[in-house]
Amino acid sequence: MTEPRCERCGTPDAVQLGERTLCETCYFEMNSCCGHEFEPVPAMEGPVLKVVKGDITTLQVDAIVNAANKTLLGGGGVDGAIHRAAGPKLLAKCATLAGCKTGKAKITPGYRLPAAFVIHTVGPVWHGGQQGEPDLLASCYRNCLNLALENNAIRTVAFPSISTGVYRYPKDQAAELAIRTVNETLTPFPGRLEVSFCCFSDEDADRYRRLLACEV
Ligand code: AR6
Fold this sequence. Notes:
Helices cover about 35% and strands about 20% of the residues. The protein is built from 6 helices and 8 strands.
């Protein structure tokens, strides 16, 4: 693999800073001088992650994520709540999507929901952790975020704790993986999306708050 070169002076050993690839010297000069030569480099802030306690169907965000099953034709838990709140047009739309594989994601309008979009993903069923469950769950978060990043109308996204209900994924492990994967996926896009982890119970919300406080 070739070393990344600074786009300003050509020095090797440059790093990606927002949309720019710069060496340390150029980054410093561009941020400490009058800045006429270049547009400002975006601040290197981490992704904005929040914890919200409550029912995801009530959230005023651009997109909510649904923990669906492979048919995408509705079910219990958060899936049932989303379909009830969105109304029958959501089911009719989902019926045209030919289902969804575990770890993948598909997007629809939100219909009667406050959220303009629903991103449906299918988490893995927990079978003890040796059947690719962590990779599949990480893939759910990544694929949902990639759909959100592709759509300029989406700036705020809320996730439920995918797979931690009927699919029995251990909650601590799922929350840690969710935070780590969202952080990793959004680091190259500073300020682009605000992500909320929507927790249905105080216990779940405390778990996320604890993990976010120690930055997994
Ligand atoms: N808002 C936010 N979170 C919720 C809500 C809500 N309204 N309702 C439940 N949760 P689950 P899974 C939380 O079982 O494990 C469905 O039947 C819940 O406390 O909804 O991925 C699908 O059709 C838990 O933490 O999803 C699939 O067949 C989390 O959402 C299957 O369940 C996920 O629980 C998917 O199972």
